[in-house]
Amino acid sequence: QSVLARIESVEEKVGSYITVCKDEALKRAKEIQDKIDKGESVSLLGGIPMALKDNMCTEGIKTTCASKMLNNFVPPYNATVTRKLFDADTVLVGKLNMDEFAMGGSTENSYFKKTCNPWNLQRVPGGSSGGSAACVAAGEAVFSLGSDTGGSIRQPASFCGVVGLKPTYGSVSRYGLVAFASSLDQIGPLTKDVTDCALVMNAICGHDPMDSTSINESYPDFTKALINDVKGMKIGIPKEYIYGEGLNSEVKKAVLDAVEVLKKLGAQCEEFSLPITEYAIPAYYIISSAEASSNLARYDGVKYGYRAEKFTDLLDLYKQSRSEGFGTEVKRRIMLGTYALSSGYYDAYYKKALQVRTLIKNGFDEAFSKYDLVLGPTAPSTAYKIGEKVDDPLEMYLGDIFTVSVNIAGLPGLVIPCGFDGNKLPIGLQLIGKPLDESTLIRVGYTFE
Ligand code: GLN
């Protein structure tokens, strides 16, 4: 009730939600309360109100991907993460706004509405999981899940001053996550602090036979990493992330101040070079758009999703449905991806991008032979003004410089707040770990709490 009252009072200004499931949430909360009253055991997350990005399937509840294409799509099944959170006795409060099909970095590409940054309503919350970050920052849910293909959990966490974790590729099931770029997509938590992050990770990670890329490993109890000790830990800071062009000076200072704190606590911090960084954005936009063009071919107006009212024949049905159902950014990616995959261009673009992918992976492997973790900024700036970058997609893409490599290499990345700029806007510190070593990230993140 307290979270619903908070939604009642601030949602009109913030706009985190596409769907609020008030009645279902109250009913579910009552069921859990009854369980407790009867003396039955509930999980540590029992009764906690949470919300999901609107690209995760929820049985019987609309899952729109913030697209006209899926405006009326009601999934007949739950995503694995939805089921796992239900099994953990949480209460689903609603579905969150995002960039259409998770393509974007400001949540301005939603078909439905804009979401505002709770710290300053004239600013974007980041994206594509902007609703997921804003709702936690505004107290409209205790935690949320977002998805991260090239930074979409971490950058909004940074812009909204919350904790966001992009887990190792394959550690959280993608079954029931509407696909954007399948080799990069990963679901993760957005929380108020690192302790909550560990608790939610415990609930959502694990092997899932329904996801062919799921890693079949035993996963640790992440709360075991909530210890205040970084002594002797080796931390590498890529020079390109600090001295490269375009990093805002206040963000730089906040990140370097965090390094000083870690040094005082006994960590060994040193700079190193990740020279391939300048090719990460082009490689990411080729690979993600190529995969998107293939994944989004399923929206043809026939099986499910939007169907145009007027068409002459089958081909025209496809054309009209896709022209009317998709927004501008989604169309841009489909065209870019189709072009990059077409014969004659495949070797020059897609194959080249995959070669860069290997080099990026090798760069991190080498770094992790020396360091326990890699540290840097999350985004070049703090939250910018709504509308400021909407007409300049390339400028928007450049904002992903510090986040995309983590997806390209399949690594875990944790963002924690590390200060504010002169406009009182939050700054996020990014910690990047070895595959399946979320525990180290949680441990270092926790020392800042
Ligand atoms: N901003 C990036 C993009 O537009 C990342 C999106 C994401 O992680 N879903 O592709």
From TrEMBL:
Residues 1-441 form the Amidase domain. The active site is at 53 (charge relay system), 128 (charge relay system), 152 (acyl-ester intermediate). It catalyses: L-glutamyl-tRNA(Gln) + L-glutamine + ATP + H2O = L-glutaminyl-tRNA(Gln) + L-glutamate + ADP + phosphate + H(+). It is an enzyme of class 6 (ligase). Its EC number is 6.3.5.7. PROSITE patterns: AMIDASES. Keywords: ATP-binding, Ligase, Nucleotide-binding, Protein biosynthesis, Transferase. GO terms for molecular function: ATP binding; glutaminyl-tRNA synthase (glutamine-hydrolyzing) activity; transferase activity. One of its GO terms (biological process) is translation. Gene3D superfamilies: Amidase signature (AS) domain. One of its GO terms (cellular component) is glutamyl-tRNA(Gln) amidotransferase complex. It comes from the Bacteria. InterPro entries: Amidase, Amidase_CS, Amidase_dom, AS_sf, GatA. It holds the Pfam family Amidase. Signal peptide: none annotated. Heterotrimer of A, B and C subunits. Belongs to the amidase family. GatA subfamily. HAMAP family: GatA. Allows the formation of correctly charged Gln-tRNA(Gln) through the transamidation of misacylated Glu-tRNA(Gln) in organisms which lack glutaminyl-tRNA synthetase. The reaction takes place in the presence of glutamine and ATP through an activated gamma-phospho-Glu-tRNA(Gln). This is Glutamyl-tRNA(Gln) amidotransferase subunit A. It comes from Pseudobacteroides cellulosolvens ATCC 35603 = DSM 2933. The gene is gatA.
